[in-house]
Structures are given as structure tokens and as C-alpha cells.
Amino acid sequence: MLIPFALAAVAGTVWLFPFGDGPDTKASAGQPVRGVVTGAQAGSCNGDVQVGAQPEGDQCLVVTVRMDDGDAPGREIRAIAPLEPGSPRFAVDDKVVLSYGGGDPTDGQSYQLVDFQRDVPLALLAGLFAVVVLVLGRWQGLKALLALGVSFGVLVLFVLPAIIAGENPLLVAIFGAGLIMFAVLYLTHGLTARTSTAVLGTMVSLAMIGVLGALWAAFASLTGLDEDTATLVGLLNNPIDTRGLLLAGVVIGALGVLDDVTITQTSAVWELRAANPALTRLELYTAALRIGRDHVASAVNTLVMAYAGAALPLLLYSSISGVGLGNILTSQSIAQELVRTLVGSIGLVAAVPITTFLAAAVAATEPATGIAPPPSTRRPTRAAARDGERTSGRRGGERKTRPAGEQRRRERDGQRAGGERRTGRAGDRPNGRRAAQPRDGRAERTSDHRAEPPHERRAERTADGWFEQAGDNRAGPPPERRAERTGESWFD
Hints:
Low-confidence stretches: 47-55, 370-378, 387-402, 420-492
Helix content: 40-55%
Oligomer: single chain
Largest sheet: 5 strands, antiparallel
Mean pLDDT: 74
Number of domains: 3
């Protein structure tokens, strides 16, 4: 059933893939050049401020940088950085990044001091993340890391180049999300009916998110053109659909949370089925939906907080602008974040009943294999006792079975006795053990401390002999007395 959709995702990716050279841009952000700070001191700006506005007086930092690569490696240049609130503070031995805008590579005027080098800290953090995932997840964690690499590769190698090349952003996001969904879920969780159900639920929910996003973007007159998007449009020669770019962000952003919800719901249905194979489709659906409600509450909050954290600077700017809250929420920048958040949350909530319904329908048709029935707590019948299935009820369902041969021997002895029963007491010995004195001198010795626990065993006398029945709430013989069978009669 899912094979046509998988083939469509692959075909769409090939169709939209930007083969050939990358697109030309109208402007360049500058060639990055790495270097190390060899000197930093306060000094006069002299009109050479390169970052931010021109401060008054001796408010600038004169930084000497030795370049490690670029057109003039090993050469030192002097760059000016303003001392403003929020601007980076450079010190000796800092590893920095310069932006080379063209011109004389030996002239400091051709460079701009833009940022720190963060390769080593980020690499260490990524390594720590991988170690934590592998320690906890082991083989499953390794598959999750491979799936993460596949997702990153699809975004970098297909989604971004295709949008830059001028393709429809929404179509690119749909096919890219489909490719990520099939590759990641099957790689992480295997080719099983459970995974296929989660894939189908994710696909239906993504389609709903795309439709709702398109409707509300048009209904709210959202253009998707904010400050960052305007800068991107200015750099590209090809026209770009800014509203489609907004919807592409909605689809890709919701995919990461959707697969978590669908996998969790599908696993819940399968585990419920394994625990009780007698559950019907409706019972499976109802029980798993109760689990899904708790998951939805936390997942929706996660999605909202993720979008709010990404838009926090924009929210702060809008808050201090002096306009009312209503005007802030309905502005272009805030409204598109609200649409992105609410549409994604609606799709997330809808994914729970959709996936649960699909999982219950599929799981109910699969045979429940490898499931051991719970231990029985019913009393054994008298017929079972005669067959040697003598059990004693114990707490926690533990059972004690006596051999059938011993039971048959005792029944034969009882028949020879002719049903006659004579009892007598035996004196206690100093070592705590009692012995019965039958006529033929044979006796079986038992210790007083091996008495049966009360309220669990009951001795019953029948015409054929003695047997014990488990599960009765009546107390058995007191610990001081125990019926013993010898060759001809019974003794106490």
C-alpha cells in the first residue's frame, strides 16, 4: 500500500533536484578567512568602524589578526571593532573569522571582523550527544544517529538547493519530508507492519497540515516576507515564492514531532495487543487513545515552546515597541509564527486518533505470537487431583506440583485399607520430630516446622483416599497434627 507513495517521493525528489551548477547570486556575503588574534587594544576609531554604528571618542577596539588561510596566509592585518553593548569582545589568542570582500588581500580595509570560530566546541558537543545516544540506545541509538544523518543530508543536498534554484518551496518540502519520513522511520524501526502504520499516520497528518497551512495563509493574507526573507530575495536572481517558503517551514517543522507521536501511538497499540490478545479493535483504540491524550498534551507544549524560542527576539522587539498586544499579534512577523504553531499543533493532535485507528485495525488482524498466558488461580478439580495434579495455592500465583505416581500409590493404599480410618497421637521426640507407630512397624517421620500454611490448604477424605485441594480459604489441620499413611491404616 505504501510502495506507490515511496516511489512518488523518490520520483518527486529526482524531478525537483537541481542538477548542474548552483545558481548565481546578485551579491556575495564575502569569503570567510580564518585567523588568530595576536593583539587587541582600545584606540581611536578613525572612521574605520566595520561593525555597527560609529561610536564617539576612543570607543573602538583595534585588533591585530594573523590570517591562517585565504589569499595571504600568515600575514597580519589590523581590523577595527566597535565597543558597543552586545558586540563581541575579542582578546589575544581568540580564533576568529574574517570576511574578505575583494580587493587587495594584504590590505586590512578589504577584511571585516565578523565572528568567532566555533568548530571545536560544536564538534565536542556533537560527540557528547552521540556518546549519550549510543550508551542509552545501543544498536537502536546507532540507527537513530544514522537516520539523523539522512535527514540532514536531504535538507542540505536537496531541499535548500532546490529552493534556491527557484523550485516551488511547498512542493520541495513535501517531497523532501516524504523522503525523510520513509528513510528515517524504516531505518530506525525496521520493515514491520508497526512501522508502516506509523508511516501512514504521519503521511495523512502531514497532508492535513499542508492543506490547513495553505488555507490559513491565504485567509490571513500572509505573504511570508519578513526581514530575513527580504534579504534572501535580494540575494537571489531567481524569484522565490515567499508564501510557499512559509508553508515549507510549517511542513518540515511539524515532521520531527509527528513521527515521535505516531511511533509512540503505534507501539502502544501493539503492546496492548500483546498484553491481552482478546481485545477487539474498539477496545484497542479506546485504551491506546487514553495513552495518546497524555502524550498530546506534552507534545503540543513542546511544539509551541520551540516556535516561541525561535521567535523570542522578535517577540521582545514587538513588546518594547509601544503598540498594543493585539497589534503585535496580528503583525506580519508574529501572525505567521502563530499560523505556523497552531497549524502544526492541530496536525499533531489529529495524528493521535488517526494513527491509533490505523494501528488498531492492523494489530487486531495479526496473530498474537510469543505471548504466555497469565498463571491460573482457579482451584484444581477433584479429577485433576486424582490424576496427580496436586497444587497448593501460594501468593503471587506460584504453584507446587506433586508427582502423579505418589498420588496413585496413596490411592491404592487407601483402597487396601477398605476405607477404615484409625487415628492416634504420637509422642513428640526431643529433636522436634514425631513418628507414627503402625502395626507393621513402618513409619514416616515429618518435622513439625513443615506444617502447611493456614487458609491455603485443606485435607479432604474420600472413599478412594486422601487428596489436598488448593485455593480453599478454610484452614487445614493444625501444625501439631499430620495425617500419615502407612501400609495398612492412617495415623495422626
